[in-house]
What does this fold into?
Amino acid sequence: MVEKSFPLNFENRVKNDSYLGEELLESLNGISPISIRFNPSKKIPSDSSNNPTIQQSSNPIQWCENGTYLEERPNFTLDPLYHSGVYYSQEAGSMMLAKVLSQLELDKGPKILDLCAAPGGKSGLIASFLSEKGLLISNEVIHARSKILKENLIKWGNSNTVVTNNDPKDFLRLPHFFDVIVVDAPCSGEGMFRKDIDSRNEWSEENVNLCAARQKRIVMDVWVSLKPGGYLIYSTCTFNEQENEDNIIWFANELNAEILELDFSPFQQDRKKAGAYALPNLVETEGFYIAVLQKSADSKTIKLPKVKQQSLTRIKDLKSISQFSKTTGFEFFSWNTIVFALPELFVNEIKLLQQEMRIVKFCTEIGTLMRDEIIPDHALAMNSYLLNFEQKIELTKEEALKYLKGETFPLDGKKGYNLITYQNIPLGWIKHIGSRFNNLFPKEWRIRMKID
It folds into this structure.
């Protein structure tokens, strides 16, 4: 059992709150559950007898079809399937987003904004929900964290995701653009007191008040970009009323929005019937809160800005591309020497995003034009919807880990570009040049730890 004192004001607040109570404090000194979410676009290898993570994954999370608990935390870094995007380590409570999205009345191709998206767990879940039938914009205001978000979405492997690095107020430039906005708001983090013991030292009443005020600013800044009739999904990982139900009721009053009554079971309805809590003493999660607002359908429509002249050049001759990538359903553009695939149904919307936002990930990068050839990009290797390449080399686990470290080693294969796989799941590219090969796995993502 983990034992460390709580901030006195927090402890007294919880004990004196009949909704929470001392049982919550006891649970926060327990052991955190471990959970992962599988990627439905990437098949779990049929022969996983030697994979400790897959072997543990027999205890499903009831509110998320692809989620499961693990008995103990494996070393994810040493599992090549983790690097290939077969699964993602995500806290179980936050997977309630899957159940919420399934209850919303949405068009076939909705546009969804994940506003505070890093490191990317919820964005991957949303991408799986959309299943290539919509458009996901994942935003992170902190630049360094937006790079982590980009990495995780590239590994998840969907074609219809864009990563931006913008402040919430920047989305005022995209009025009535999104069908759904997910705001997993920065908060005081009380729900993480078990998983991150040191976070207890950062808690204060003053910080709770600051967080509640910041959450109001974030939602008010982004509200204009939600379509009339659209949905705002609000969540935090904290237990207090100021940052949760009080804020939801304030938003509803200020914005003339409706608080939706959805099925959040087995989470507990909150104190004011605005949303629901995952309380660690009652459900196998860390602390989590979620609620949904719907914008009035009577809101006055605001026109989007026009798409201006772009720096993108449409590629019409797809011969060099088709050797690596499927082409049906996509349009291909070059931006300087980089080739990108854009879902053909959302080309204009994506061009508008390029014009108005700071783009970190621009759908799927196919590769780089070099003279008469394309150097394939890692993002293409991760994307099962686009990838179409026959020349492959299957690695053992030992070889796969060496590859992920950026090493080279003796490897039979044909000259030229080869797709590297592990248990038939793509890991990345090499360029075989006969006696040796060039390892094209991204340098910044390579394993740093010893694997012996």
Q: What stands out?
A: The radius of gyration is 23 Å. The first strand starts at residue 34 and ends at 38.
